[in-house]
Amino acid sequence: MLIRAAVCPHPPLLVPELAGAAAGELEGLREACRRAIRPLLEADAGELVVVGTGPETRAFDSSAAGSFHPYGLELKVGQGEPVLPLSLTVGRWLLDGERRARLQSVAFDAEPGACLELGRELARDDVSLLVMGDGSACRDEKAPGYLDERAGPYDREAARALGEADAAALGRLDPVLSGELMAAGRAAWQVLAGAASAGGGPLRGELLADEAPYGVGYFVATWT
Known about the structure:
34% of the residues lie in helices and 24% in strands. It has 224 residues and is α/β, with parallel strands linked by helices. The chain is globular, with a radius of gyration of 16 Å.
């Protein structure tokens, strides 16, 4: 059963040392992430699982490492050779060793049905999720994917669904459109939707942040 969840974005610039002089631009987003994950750290029931997109769907040991070296910062989280995708690396950094968590990646291009089933599997026992995912990367001309007029409506619906704990709406997100808009969080959000559908009663959502400072949609939400 899904007990609670936090949804956070995973831009590497969340790490202040990496952002440098621009660190202050994302401080509000960092604070929203801290607020979202605080209940996960304080909880004493259920396993904590960090879910994020990556090249493949696979589980990692809770001690697995990730690195920000590809983004210009010699910072490693976890133990051993870095193997985690960016989403799980940022998730580990946000937890900052406060609580051990299982790490689960889901392929960027995983079909919605597979994402939903993975979520249901994760929620067979009591579980809390930290779900890492960005919205579209096409919100303006300076965005990684340039401006796409479909990005605004896509992100508004994603933000609404995350803020209202609308699992059904997340489950309907189109993987083709999501790919065209470079929405890196789609598959991870659909894992959350699957976990929410596994039973345990209705969930209440709260949207803590909805920003696009670099043309990429960043959302922070909690489900309880």
